[in-house]
Specification:
The protein is an alpha/beta fold. It has 12 helices and 12 strands. Strand 8, helix 6 and strand 9 form a beta-alpha-beta unit. It is globular. It binds ligand PBG.
Length: 346
Amino acid sequence: MGLRPWLAKMGGLGETSFMEMMIRGRRNRRTPAIRGLVRETRLAVEDLILPVFFHADAEDVAIASMPGCTRWSVVGLMKEIKEAHALGIRGVVLFPKIEEDLKDSAGSESANEAGLVPQVIREIKKSCPEMCVITDVALDPYNIDGHDGLVVKDNGGELKILNDETVEVLCRQAVCHAKAGADMVAPSDMMDGRIGAIRLALDEAGFAEVGIMAYTAKYASAFYGPFRGALDSAPKEGDKKTYQMDPGNLREAIRELLMDEEEGADIVMVKPAGPYLDVIARLRDETTLPMAAYQVSGEYLMIKAACESGWLDEKAIVMESLLGIKRAGADMILTYFAKDVAKWLI
Ligand code: PBG
């Protein structure tokens, strides 16, 4: 109904009940049953990927920068993964804390077949073979400089992160993870050309079935702070702005997407998630590939802190934050809340 006849009807007090509205949005919101029928986006346990932290020590250690998260021993991690599996979670991403004396400027430990990550992959595949094991491919936990790539200093003392030389090391790391039984590798380093190079390296080594989850639009974000605390992997010098993306850029994300698609990515990712919903929505329109979004450590911590002080309701806030990420266009979400959410969904 037009505004004019409605205003005419509004002439007398008490006549609002005679409004002639053909369309009323609230009819579809009247009962839980109707709201359930018309709901457009749903979270399911199958959407969730749990990132896990671990080290070679025998102790399980609470992570100070991420309350509620633990850096597991290998034994503790297996228990955690079985628990996640029992809750219906079918994807994990592995983040190791590497011992300081194994770190060097070549990131050599990253391709050690007897190293911590290959050992953990083998154990998970033995005790929980159904779990999709995704590994992080980047040098920051292995590199003495804490950067995702190899570092040199030029004559002026300025830090440079080498691209092509790094990609070679990443290829060895990816093949090493595949040999141990990884289902997917997830390069998070943002070096140019690494998706194509890793695809070739995997294929040549006989791992054509191992997938690549590309960190396609990974922004140089302050939201990674608590994660670097968890792994002691913060850059010793400089920042990551010459390889991770500028937070102001959206078109550039599409450019990265086109490259990753052409180079053979199987899944693309946007990271962080919450502050970058427009990027998720835009890339959703630009690609037919499945898309992941990473609700990162800083997003986790903000919610945790606000809820621990009683200011917000944790369950409601977590569910809404994840639903928003799905509604924006993500098919799957990496979140430290995965186990809680799985429990809430039962
Ligand atoms: C390292 C890596 C980072 C995260 C995932 N992989 C940190 C970084 O790039 O500095 C961040 C995850 C989080 O904050 O939860 N390549």
